[in-house]
Amino acid sequence: MAKIKIIIFSGGIGGAKLIEGFYYLINRENLTNQIDLNIVVNTGDDFLWYGLLICPDIDIIIYTLKNIVDRNKGWGIDNDSFNCLNFIKNFYDDSLSWFNLGDKDLAISIYRSFLLNKGQNLSKIVKIITEKFNLKINIYPMAENYMPTMLETDLGILHFQEYLVKHKAQPIIKRIIYGADSLIQNNEQVLIPQNLESLMKDVDIIIIGPSNPLLSINPILHIPFYNKILKEYKNQFKNIIAISPLILSKAVKGPLVKNLIDLGYEPNNKSIAEIYCQFITTFLIDERDGLLDYCENLSKKYNIKFLTTNILMDSIEKKIELAKFILNLYI
Ligand code: GDP
Q1: Distance CA 55, CA 146 (A)
Q2: To the nearest 10°, the Cα dihedral for 245, 248, 253, 255?
Q3: CA distance 237 to 241
Q4: How confident is the model at residue 74 (pLDDT cuts 50, 70, 90)?
Q5: For the segment 189-204, what is each residue's pLDDT rounded down to a tens digit?
Q6: Which residue's alpha carbon is at the smallest distance from atom 5 of ligand 1?
Q7: Left, alpha or beta for 273 (phi > 0: left; psi -120 to 50: alpha)?
Q8: Which helix (H) or strand (E) holds 230?
Q9: Which atom of ligand 1 lies closest to the CA of 75?
Q10: Given ligand 1 and candidates 142, 160, 212, 286, which is best to mutate, with the most ligand atoms within 8 Å of its CB?
């Protein structure tokens, strides 16, 4: 029997938790012969730093699955040291010192950049690193290009990392400039990883993880290839489910509520459903939020089914439970 092909669209922390749930579920219940798990990761957060390509979302997912992520900080490798950064400060002014990377974390970026400089494309490099970590999962960058998300703010135009890390998400965002739109404006082609392109045409279930819709998922959806195919799939009533990153109108972590307010949205599930309305057939929200009047209205208007369950993943069991809930909807 053909395997069920699942693709999860993901940013970093929120997406990684759901991916972890699926990964453990599939391995624990011996579903590897039945389910083919694939991840499309936002690379809008990617960042050139000391000549290295840093891929925060891809790395968080890999470290989370390998169970070496620093769960307190939410990024980096657990118990990492910072010798390299502390030493480099002796040579270089501190204009880059707002960004931190531990020694092991840095090693991954050195290796990735080494392969890039040898002419390898990003998707192949991610595959190599995933295999070196012995992870049985296909992780794809959303595209091969370097295509950072830039933010027009009250402090001027900032790279996403400058906004988030250097300025601690304090600037007011006036506009998000997605990498795909910038490339297209410069007449450059967005290169979709080859295997992913064929997989997208043959997928059974698409899951939009509980990531930040504006800063983690929209960079993917702004790429014409995904934008077009998801809209077509929605018209064909394919299984495309999004999980809300909000619980009781609050983000579990990160600046999502502020981002929504900055850009004129009310910070609630209704806004998230409207952001995704052209692309999804099901929207999963937390049972504490419940199905309110707006759900029925939006359900009719955009043809979206609203479902509720516990979507707070604060333990491995809850991550697996959520993955199981989603899987049971379709198989
Ligand atoms: P980033 O790229 O590291 O910012 O990570 P994401 O965009 O993938 O994740 C950030 C989002 O994840 C935030 O908006 C959080 O509200 C959401 N999030 C984090 N943990 C959970 C959780 O346990 N459940 C749900 N539903 N959302 C979560």
Answers
A1: 10
A2: 80
A3: 11
A4: confident
A5: 999 999 999 999 999 9
A6: 12
A7: alpha
A8: helix 224-235
A9: 3
A10: 212
Q: Which atom of ligand 1 is nearest to the CA of 45?
A: 2
30: left (phi over 0), alpha (psi -120 to 50) or beta: left
| Per-residue pLDDT, 241 | 98
- Neighbour-count burial for 277-292, b at 16+ CB within 10 Å, e otherwise: bebbbbbbbbeebeee
How far apart, in whole angstroms, are the C-alpha atoms of residue 56 and residue 69? 12
Q: How far apart are CA 171 and CA 261, in angstroms?
A: 12
CB 66 within 8 A of CB 133: yes
pLDDT for position 97: 85
pLDDT at 113 over 90: yes
Q: Supply 119's token pair.
A: 């002419």
Q: Cα(323)–Cα(331) distance, rounded to whole angstroms? A: 12
> Which residues form ligand 1's pocket by a CB distance below 6 Å?
10-15, 17, 45, 57, 210-212, 216, 243-245, 247, 251-254, 256, 311-313
CA distances from 80 to 98, 106, 161, 186, 220 (A): 18, 10, 21, 40, 31
Q: Is the pTM of this model over 0.90?
A: yes
**Cβ-based burial of 267 (10 A; exposed 0-12, middle 13-18, buried ≥19):** middle
Say which residue the tokens 């993917």 belong to. 220
Pocket test for ligand 1, best of 9, 10, 17, 142 (most atoms within 8 A of CB): 17
Give per-residue pLDDT as tens, 18-69. Answer: 999 999 999 999 999 999 999 999 999 999 999 999 999 999 999 999 999 9
Of ligand 1's listed atoms, the one at least distance from the Cα of 15 is: 8
